[in-house]
Each structure stands twice: as C-alpha cells, then as structure tokens.
C-alpha cells in the first residue's frame, strides 16, 4: 500500500481534521448542512440549463427570469455575483485577488501565483495513492457536510428545454440535485466546485452523466476563460466525493498552446490527438458534432483509466470543445521516494491546474525564482514515461475501439487554437471587472 503525507486543502469552512467529525451533537448539527438534519424545507437558487447538444451552440446563454425580469448572462451575473457575495460575507479563508500573479517568460507562458494562504498550519494527513477507485466513506469529510451558505445555486437540466432561473427553489432530496459551491481556499477568481447529484454521495470517479454535466456547464458558460478540471484519487484529489473544480483565468493555459498530432477520429466526429512538446504526456479530445459524442468518448477513456488503476487529471477547455486527458504518476513516485527533496520542498501538489501550467506556489522564494525551466522540471516528474504512456494509450484505444473511424499517422499538426489564445493580456482586468489582479510579465 502506497501512501503520502500532505496537508489537505480546505475547501469548506466545515471541513475538520481527521477524527473530529464525531464532535457534532445529536438532534441536528445546527449548521444548515445538506444532511437530513437540516435539509427539510431548505431552498436554494436554481439555474435550469437547456441541453445544448451541437458543439457550435456553445455561445453565451441568457437567463429567462421569473416575473419577466431582464435577462442576464449566466456566469457574469449569477456565478460571479454569488461568488463575490460570499467573498463580501467573509466566507473565504483569504483574499485570492490579493495574491501576486505573473506570467513567466518563455515559449509557453507558464503562470506563477504566490498563494501563501494555502499553506496551512495543519498537520499533514496520509493519503493512499495506489488505488484510484475507493469506496465512499461517510465518516470522512464530504460535501453533504458543507453549510448551505457555501452553495451558490443548483444546476439542473431544464424540464422544458428553456433556460430558466429560479431565485429560490426547494431542494429536492429525492432527486439529489447537482450544485455549485465555493472553494473557500480559491486558486483564482470565481473558483467553484461542481458537485453532481450531491446527496447520492458518489465517490470520486467519472461516470457518463456527471461528465456530461460538466461539459454542459462549460458550454453554458460559453467563455474560453472559464475552465473545469478534474483530479482522480492518486492524482491529488483529496476528497473522495465526486466533484469538478472550475475558475476563471484570463490568459491561455500553457497546455492549450501545445502542438498536437492527430491519431484518429471517432464515428461521432471526435478528433483524438497526442499532445506534443509538453512536459506531461497526454491526449487531446476535440468535439466536432455533439457534446454527448465528445462526453461519451472522454468518459469511456476516463473509466478505462480508473478501472485500470491509472491516476489522471482532466482539463475541460474552450467552452467544452477541447478536453485534455493527462495520466500521471507523481504521487506514486513521491510515495516510493523517487522525487527529489528540492521538488518536495516546494510543496507543489501537481493536480490539474498545475499540470496545465498554472503553478500555485506557497513560498515567496519559489515565486521569485519561478522560471519555465523550473516548471518544466517539476511537470516532467509528473508525466508517465514514454513506454508506460504507450501502454496506457493502448488501453484507452482498446476501450473506445467501437467508436474509432480511422487512424492517422500523418505528421504532427498544429491544431487551431481556441479563442482564448488570441486574447491580449491587456483584457485581463476588463474580463473580471477589476476584481482579479492583472497578469504581469517579469
């Protein structure tokens, strides 16, 4: 059994140290949580999205309000408005907008952030890293224990195929709503958690419905600056309750700028390519027809990896049109003592955001000395070897063989970049209305 010790990220103000969960009194917790003691009669805002299926339909969507109130854009006015409300109410552990951030000079433009607020004075916890699929454990922290004030809104498919917003809707416990909640230890502006079917207490593993829900959220946003990410167990997920993360970053992620070589196209029009000239080996999936086609292929690939006990991370980019799948082995190397003390001393946990090129640093000396070379060296330790990656790739293509249309061994192609890549850095402040610090070059 392989284990590592790390300080867990606190995502909720109700997250306790291991072993403290038994301190609640009987007859209800009194903190307005998502459990049977507090849920009856509870209400939350509800955003009902239209099930857009065509990839091309991923533009911005406007909400239809009850009582014919003026429509407002989803992300700017709902998610960000609710997120800023929680910031004003003091629910976050620190002000992420005050964190220093810079774009590191170099070909890829890695982003470095100094986030000392994430460096907790808490005791490290042991995490098992050699088992991607683990059963849900009610005794450990899970998202039913968060306070309802940390939840921004319910996120569900519309029953009549019309986009609607209900400012106060009952929480239907029998149908287990999907919800969007704040991460109280944010990495960036608007950092939230998408928790599919929260009351079903699903363990951290991809399934078809939940992954499609994440794509719907990305498409509904229609904003290339808003990405969703997923970490499996063994790839730096620390809470074994199914969730995705999402936030705004107003510059391209370095991985979004990496070239790729087409491998194949599925019968549903999903192009699968291998990422080239990037320190972490991985695959890129690009949708051409429907969200469901894209979701099914990526879900099948993720399910193959987790069933094969391969830790992995996923980045959902370009409003749900591009998905990066990145198997990794850093935690395994760490547990085996194969990571240098120099890298371990940085306390960087290379999850989806770090692997994609957003380096969250906890020490000022690491931030001041940040370079593309240092970022590359860290991420090279995350990547599977070429031989192991070829084995994992073969597993994936065997799992999705029924949907493969053609194989392509042509030369590497530099695929069309998403709109985000062409966005000038000067627009960083304008995007988030001054709430997010601008990226600065060094």
UniProtKB/TrEMBL annotation:
GO biological process, one term: glucose metabolic process
UniProt key word Transferase: yes
Location of the GDPGP1-like C-terminal domain: 254-400
GO terms under cellular component: cytoplasm
Residues of the GDPGP1-like N-terminal domain: 75-247
Keyword field: Cytoplasm, Guanine-nucleotide releasing factor, Hydrolase, Nucleotide-binding, Nucleotidyltransferase, Transferase
Name of the protein in its database record: OLC1v1022690C1
Source species of the chain: Oldenlandia corymbosa var. corymbosa
């Amino acid at each position: 059994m392989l284990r590592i010790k790390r300080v867990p990220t606190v995502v909720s103000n109700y997250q306790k140290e291991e072993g403290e969960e038994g301190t609640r009194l009987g007859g209800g917790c009194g903190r307005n949580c998502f459990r049977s003691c507090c849920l009856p009669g509870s209400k939350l805002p509800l955003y009902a999205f239209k099930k857009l299926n065509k990839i091309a339909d991923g533009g911005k969507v406007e909400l239809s309000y009850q009582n014919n109130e003026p429509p407002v854009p989803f992300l700017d006015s709902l998610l960000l408005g609710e997120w800023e409300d929680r910031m004003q109410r003091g629910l976050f552990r620190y002000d992420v907008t005050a964190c220093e951030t810079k774009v590191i000079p170099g070909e890829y433009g890695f982003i470095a952030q100094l986030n000392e607020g994430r460096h907790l004075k808490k005791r490290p916890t042991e995490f098992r890293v050699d088992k991607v699929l683990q059963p849900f454990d009610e005794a450990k922290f899970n998202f039913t224990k968060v306070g309802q004030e940390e939840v921004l809104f319910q996120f569900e498919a519309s029953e009549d195929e019309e986009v609607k917003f209900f400012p106060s809707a009952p929480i239907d416990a029998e149908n287990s709503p999907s919800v969007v909640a704040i991460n109280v230890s944010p990495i960036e502006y608007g950092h939230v958690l998408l928790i599919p079917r929260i009351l079903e207490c699903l363990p951290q593993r991809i399934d078809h419905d939940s992954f499609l829900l994440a794509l719907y959220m990305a498409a509904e946003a229609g904003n290339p600056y808003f990405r969703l990410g997923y970490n499996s167990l063994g790839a730096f997920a620390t809470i074994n309750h199914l969730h995705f993360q999402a936030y705004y970053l107003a510059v391209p992620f370095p991985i979004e700028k990496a070239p790729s070589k087409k491998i194949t196209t599925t019968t549903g029009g999903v192009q699968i390519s291998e990422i080239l000239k990037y320190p972490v080996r991985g695959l890129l999936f690009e949708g051409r027809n429907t969200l469901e086609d894209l979701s099914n292929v990526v879900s099948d690939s993720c399910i193959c990896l987790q069933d094969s006990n391969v830790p992995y991370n996923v980045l959902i980019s370009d409003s749900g049109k591009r998905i990066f799948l990145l198997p990794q082995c850093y935690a395994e190397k760490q547990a085996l003592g194969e990571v240098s003390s120099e890298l371990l001393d940085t306390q960087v946990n290379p999850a989806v955001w770090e692997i994609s090129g957003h380096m969250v640093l906890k020490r000022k000396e690491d931030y001041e000395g940040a370079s593309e070379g240092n970022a590359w060296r860290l991420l090279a330790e995350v990547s599977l070897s070429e031989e192991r990656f070829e084995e994992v790739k073969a597993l994936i293509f065997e799992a999705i063989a029924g949907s493969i249309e053609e194989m392509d061994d042509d030369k590497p192609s530099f695929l069309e970049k998403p709109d985000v890549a062409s966005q000038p850095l000067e627009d960083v402040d304008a995007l988030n209305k001054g709430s997010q610090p601008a990226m600065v070059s060094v």
